[in-house]
Every structure is written in structure tokens, then in C-alpha cells.
Design brief:
Number of helices: 8
Order of helices and strands: EHEHEHEHEHEHEHEH
Radius of gyration: 17 Å
Number of strands: 8
Strand content: 5-15%
CATH class of the largest domain: Alpha Beta
Distance between the termini: 28 Å
Largest sheet: 4 strands, parallel
Helix content: 40-55%
CATH topology of the largest domain: Rossmann fold
Keywords: Isomerase
Organism: Rhizobium paranaense
Pfam families: Asp_Glu_race
Family: Belongs to the HyuE racemase family.
GO molecular function: amino-acid racemase activity; hydantoin racemase activity
Number of domains: 2
Shape: globular
Length: 243
């Protein structure tokens, strides 16, 4: 089984971090193919960054299709471009937020997603509502810029831990979801510290992708995720015209 793991931002170090986490949980017969977008923002923090990251994401899906992959994972907790990718592709496409909150729902009645900045909190809260977990989940921002997670002296880990502690004390959280792909390497350590399930979206998406492929299931192409209709696209978007 071949899983394509696409980082829709352009930071290769984040791609490598996500790839390490993916390979740590992948089954012995699963190959993780890691890809970094070659156009767009260095990190994705809110709707503007996310919109400009979608063309790079779709380019990676298209260009690597010739190599063959059985499913793809979008390694951003904003589920950047997820709907467009599902319409574009004939294989299962998974997002980190959807995968993580679904996994948390198996493990706890109440859980908290701890993410980076307030602008991301609002976006992720909307996703959690959409995925049907609004009554069970709270979303918190820890006031960390995504790129600070790459800087050992930024104080980001201390901020993250402080917000997790508030979630446990104030929200009655029974589990914690890490709301950024840049946090993926922290899940096991934080779980050991706090004694509750700590869910990383990368790991959750890998195992769910493996399950879907093993079951012989893929995205329905009837209705919402039907393949795009052929039509002219002009200007910088001409390369994305459906054929």
C-alpha cells in the first residue's frame, strides 16, 4: 500500500516531521511518500493562507499520480483543500482534523483541540462543528505561530502545555487533540505527561487511510465529489483545467 502524505505549505522541515510520525505508525506493508508543496505560503494560518495553498496541493496530487498511490493525506490540520482534492482524485483523501476528531470520538465523550493562533481556532472550530463534534469538543488557541514550533527557543512548547492544562482543568477534557501538523512529534510525550489520550492527526489519518484502502473503499464520485466538468480555465489557473 502506498500513501501520499502532502504538506500543503512549503516548509520541508514540517513535511519531514509529519513523515516521521506517519512512518512510526504505518503497517509494515505501507509505504509513506512524503511531498512538499512547491508553491504557496511557508505556513498555513487561517483562510487566506489556506486558499493560496490549494493550487500547490492539487499540483502535487496530479504530478505524483503517475507514480501511483492508494490514498492521500493532507498534512494540515485546517484540512486545506480537502473538498477540492476529493473531487479531483479517484482515491481516498483524508484530512488531519476530520481524522483526529473522529478518532477522539472513539476514546472520550469530551475532548479539546489545542491549536496555534486565534485565527486558526475559529477555522478549526467551524470544522469541528461541521464534522458533528461541536457538542463534545472545545477548541483552544495557544497563541503560537506555526513556525515557532520549529524554533526550540521560542517558548512554544511551554505555551502549548499551559493550554493543555487549562483544557483539562476548565473544559473537563478527557482527551486532547493536537491541532497542528507541526505538533505531531509531541503526542507521545504529552500523553505520558498528562495521562489522557493525546491524538495526533497525522497518525490518525494514516491508520484510517490504511483501513479504507484495505476495505476497498474510496470517495464517492456521485454528487458532491463528482469529477470536475471540463471547461476553460484562463490565466495562471489554465494548467488546472479539467480534461
Amino acid at each position: 500500500m502506498r500513501l501520499l502524505l502532502i504538506n500543503p505549505n512549503t516548509s520541508a522541515s514540517m513535511t519531514e516531521k509529519a513523515a516521521i510520525a506517519a512512518r512510526a505508525v504505518a503497517a509494515s506493508g505501507t509505504e509513506i511518500i512524503a511531498a512538499t508543496s512547491r508553491m504557496g505560503p511557508a505556513s498555513i494560518e487561517g483562510y487566506y493562507d489556506g486558499a493560496l495553498a490549494v493550487p500547490g496541493l492539487l499540483s502535487e496530487l496530479r504530478e505524483r499520480r503517475i507514480m501511483g498511490y492508494d490514498a492521500a493525506i493532507i498534512a494540515c490540520f485546517d484540512d486545506t483543500g480537502l473538498e477540492a482534492a476529493r473531487a479531483f482524485s479517484d482515491v481516498p483523501i483524508l484530512g488531519l482534523c476530520e481524522s483526529a476528531v473522529a478518532t477522539a470520538g472513539f476514546l472520550a465523550q469530551r475532548f479539546t483541540v489545542v491549536t496555534t493562533l486565534e485565527r486558526s481556532r475559529i477555522l478549526i472550530d467551524n470544522l469541528v462543528q461541521r464534522y458533528g463534534m461541536g457538542g463534545r469538543a472545545k477548541v483552544r488557541a495557544s497563541d503560537i505561530a506555526v513556525l515557532e514550533l520549529e524554533d526550540a527557543v521560542s517558548g512554544a512548547i511551554g505555551k502549548l502545555r499551559a493550554e493543555i492544562e487549562r483544557a483539562l482543568d476548565e473544559d473537563g477534557a478527557e482527551a486532547i487533540v493536537l491541532g497542528c501538523a507541526g505538533m505531531t512529534d509531541l503526542a507521545r510525550e504529552l500523553q505520558a505527561i498528562y495521562g489522557v489520550p493525546v491524538i495526533d492527526g497525522v497518525a490518525a489519518a494514516v491508520k484510517q487511510a490504511e483501513a479504507l484502502v484495505s476495505l476497498g473503499l474510496s470517495t464517492s464520485k456521485r454528487g458532491s465529489y463528482a469529477s470536475p466538468l471540463p471547461k476553460p480555465f484562463i490565466g495562471a489557473m489554465s494548467d488546472f483545467a479539467p480534461v
